[in-house]
Amino acid sequence: DVKVTQSSRYLVKRTGEKVFLECVQDMDHENMFWYRQDPGLGLRLIYFSYDVKMKEKGDIPEGYSVSREKKERFSLILESASTNQTSMYLCASGSRRREALEAFFGQGTRLTVV
Amino acid sequence: AQTVTQSQPEMSVQEAETVTLSCTYDTSESDYYLFWYKQPPSRQMILVIRQEAYKQQNATENRFSVNFQKAAKSFSLKISDSQLGDAAMYFCAYRSIYNNNDMRFGAGTRLTVKP
Q1: Mean local confidence (pLDDT), B40-62
Q2: B interface test, pick of A32, A43, A56 with most B CB neighbours within 10 Å
Q3: What is residue B97's predicted lDDT score, i.e. its pLDDT?
Q4: Which of A69, A72, A57, A64 is nearest to A113 (CA)?
Q5: Chains A, B: CB contacts under 8 A, how many?
Q6: Fewer CB within 10 A of the terminal residue: chain A, N end or C end?
């Protein structure tokens, strides 16, 4: 079974803190994604990575950065957390093979910025 | 970037009845993949069904089937014989064959199943 593991299920941080959300996958997938989920807005793509050290901006990259130093790990960084970044964050990974393009998700991190 | 639209924020169905969830998307690409994911209260996203754009035949997985209309850029999900366990958020997703295989989702439809 594919496993995508996010480091925390719940997180509470203070405004202005630097926040790291970690995601690890065990299936040697090339692609990894970070989404933000808000009611009524669905899943919005923040950043994705298609290879080690390679990244592309999604639809809402402002206020976020990412790091992928190893293939299995993809980190989302909030440089200076703000209350409008309170949300559910979902990490996903996926192969680039045509016959296996579905994405696999972690359990999500509910981040509250106070 | 491709966009995915789910126009039904909420839907309701009686147990054992059939319900259809709508999804449309916008793309200039000719080859891509479409998916429906289910997110129950546990928050874990579960793949329900997938469709490859170059295949004309609609995908089916047990009680779940899709109506894929490529020209209309429409991808609806039909759930037959609805069960209480089908209650969840349902998300439609588009994955590009190009653009480093990025993946976009719709806003979701919350499905309630009434006993």
Answers
A1: 93
A2: A43
A3: 86
A4: A64
A5: 66
A6: N
